[in-house]
Design goal:
Number of strands: 28
Number of helices: 1
Mean pLDDT: 90
CATH topology: Neuraminidase
Structural class: mainly beta
Helix content: under 10%
Distance between the termini: 56 Å
Strand order of the largest sheet: 1-28-27-26
CATH superfamily: TolB, C-terminal domain
């Protein structure tokens, strides 16, 4: 009997250790994301990208790099909306932060999501609708030619050819298009998949807190393994799917994600600028490894005042040197974080 008890206790210990190990990788270990004491190996350069004379920054909602190292930014027309504006919201800067060009004037209501594909085409989402515009996903050439439009202009819906406040878009290696369709409130809460030529394939997700359900979609990415990562900001988690929409995992250690960037080495960068759990969860950019689930660095929000709920980076992109470019909505700028030796 004593030996049976010892074996039972040993088996229980093995099971608990295995379970804890699994939870650590999945990001569910309590406290794994509370990153205040982690190193911050970056030096900040504020207002790195300069608008041309006569134009002021608006809310900067999206940021991406192209194959030449140029930076693309979604700027909400010098304000926090493009409704009624003649300002062009899609803006290109060179590697030094100098303005190159802009386009897309008169085509947007609330530019939100941005993605640059392997051909350097520019993909955008318009996360609101007004006066016969918005609720669409648009692809542009690097010179501003409209290549593809998904959704019906100004029409909010949940069918195969309509969206309701789409927040993010990403294109897979084979050209398939994945759209995070929704931005909280009464909008949609789903991922929509299209072929490379814009034909509807499928959709998945609904409002809720369970696996495959969304509280507030706010961004979408694809990692080096081809998995679809969704910033489920309303549920304080990243959800992981295969490209057929099958739920694989969830990661909670990266805070309340506004967006997700994953580099070719599997390092993940997640801006959290709206966390309602402050001060238990500090706002800022969490950096980690998607293979181990470990958060390894933390860049704190530039304004720790708990009354401010969306001050720091809303979107980030990282260059080959490891430098980070962050777009800020409330402070209306693009900030560069230069990697420093520890």
């Amino acid at each position: 009997m004593k030996n049976s008890r010892r074996i039972g206790r040993a088996l229980t210990t093995v099971w608990v250790c295995a379970a804890l190990s699994s939870l650590f990788v999945a990001g569910a270990v309590k406290g794994q994301g509370r990153s205040d004491s982690l190193p911050n190996p970056y030096r900040a350069i504020e207002n790195w990208a300069k608008m041309p004379e006569g134009r002021t920054w608006g809310a900067a909602s999206g940021v991406e790099l192209d194959s030449k190292g140029n930076l693309w930014v979604l700027d909400r027309c010098g304000a926090n909306t493009c409704a009624g504006s003649s300002v062009a919201p899609i803006v290109e800067f060179d590697a030094s932060g100098k303005y190159v060009q802009s386009f897309g004037a008169g085509m947007f209501v609330f530019p939100h999501g941005l993605f640059v594909d392997k051909k350097d085409n520019i993909w955008t989402t318009d996360a609101d609708g007004k006066d016969g515009k918005g609720h669409q996903v648009m692809e542009f050439s690097p010179h501003g030619q409209l290549m593809l439009t998904l959704g019906q202009a100004g029409v909010a819906g949940d069918g195969p050819d309509t969206f309701n406040r789409p927040s993010g878009v990403v294109v897979a290696a084979n050209g398939d298009i994945f759209i995070a369709d929704g931005h909280g409130g009464e909008s949609n809460a789903r991922v929509v998949k299209f072929s490379k030529d814009g034909k509807f394939i499928k959709t998945w997700g609904k409002k809720g807190t369970g696996p495959g359900e969304f509280g507030e979609l706010h961004g979408i990415s694809i990692d080096p393994k081809g998995r679809v990562l969704v910033a489920d900001r309303g549920n304080n988690r990243i959800q992981v799917f295969d490209q057929d929409g099958n739920f694989l995992d969830q990661w909670t250690q990266f805070g309340r994600p506004s967006e997700i960037f994953v580099d070719k080495k599997g390092m993940i960068y997640v801006p959290d600028n709206t966390d309602t759990r402050y001060p238990e969860w500090k706002r800022g950019i969490r950096i980690g490894n998607i293979n181990t689930g470990k958060v390894t660095a933390f860049i704190p929000d530039p304004d720790p005042d708990p009354a401010h709920t969306a001050v720091g980076a809303e979107n980030v992109v990282v260059d080959a040197k490891g430098d980070i470019y962050a777009s800020e909505v409330n402070r209306k700028m693009v900030k560069k974080y230069v990697k420093q030796p520890l």
